[in-house]
Amino acid sequence: MNKSTFTIWCNNEFGPSDTRELELLKRVASDHRLMLFEHDDLGEAARAALRTADIVFGYPAPEAVIESEKVRWVQLDSAGYTSYDHDEIKRELTTRKIALTNSSAVFDEPCAQHLLAMITSLARQLPQALDSQRGDRTWEMEVRRSSSRLLNGQTLLMLGFGAIARRLVELLTPLKMNLVAVRRHVSGNEPVQVMHISKVDELLPSADHVVNILPANEQSRHFLNSSRFERFKHGALVYNIGRGSTIDQDALLNALNSGRLAAAYLDVTDPEPLPPDHPLWTTPNCFITPHSGGGHSDEKERQVKHFLKNLGRFERNEELINRVL
């Protein structure tokens, strides 16, 4: 094998109509050896093949990656990397000098637009008006007018400040909101005020909107719990497009039913799918989408193009996009 030829192990989920995306991958990566497996294939043949790979594209179990002595780079086909976000896994990958990248560049735009749509529609009472249209069809003009808000000058607190939050800031800036965020590692070059996540309890009482973009890990489980909901400004709104486990859903139900929260929007829940008899489905002012925030019609094609762009950078020994480790 010459220096420019790599073995690529792939279990990316291409979707039901995968011909175009798969052909794109095969064509652009034609100088390399490509091994294809089903997304949920973790059998011995797949694991054995992974041990011979230089590059991984998809979402294999981290334990299977660590079994390989050859892997130099793993690109996950998702923005989330929950199963890799453990100290022992990260330590092993770092020690072995295995680069880890995700696909944030594929999902930051749709997730940010999804949040923008819900933030603005709730401010203008659109979901509530649609409930009336599909329900008793009452003409609630005065209620809807008096409950509608202007976003100008309101404070929006982001929990987490990665690619989605950065794009959301760009979309919300024209609305002249007060945008602040917390994160684990503050770089100092963020475009808005960002504080360490330990300051979140100080910031919650002044926030009109709380946007949760936290990943799932040991530190973030039930990050929004009953004690934190009690710190929310009365009438605040919460949005979750991160992971369902980051919110204590029983505490959320209490905050909605007590009136502490004006509304909640959830694109993620715990568990998923949310059972049809779960009370969140019928809780007033709780609005749910089925983990569709990152979805878009050319999602699979953009996944492949993102990998191929990084593959070119890997071949040229350049810095990889969306590098996690």
Account of the 3D structure:
The chain has 325 residues and is an alpha/beta fold. It is built from twelve helices and twelve strands. Helix 8 (163-172) links the parallel strand 6 and strand 7 (178-183). Helix 1 (19-28) runs parallel beside helix 12 (299-315) and helix 5 (104-123) packs across helix 8. The protein is elongated, with a radius of gyration of 22 Å. It starts with 6 loop residues before the first strand and ends in a 10-residue tail after the last helix.
- Give, in spatial order, the strands making up the sheet with the most strands: 8-7-6-9-10-11-12
- Count of alpha and pi helical runs: 12
Pairing-aware structural class of the strands and helices? Answer: alpha/beta
Q: What value does the average pLDDT take?
A: 95
Q: Oligomeric form of this entry? A: single chain
**Strand element count:** 12
* Estimated helix fraction: 25-40%
Instruction: Sum up the overall morphology in one term.
Output: elongated
| Tally of structural domains | 2
Reading off the top of the CATH hierarchy, the class of the largest domain is best stated as: Alpha Beta
State the order of secondary-structure elements, H for helix, E for strand: EHEHEHEHEHHHEHEEHEHEHEEH
The description of the largest β-sheet is: 7 strands, parallel
Q: Can you name the CATH architecture of the largest domain?
A: 3-Layer(aba) Sandwich
Do you know the CATH topology of the largest domain? Answer: Rossmann fold
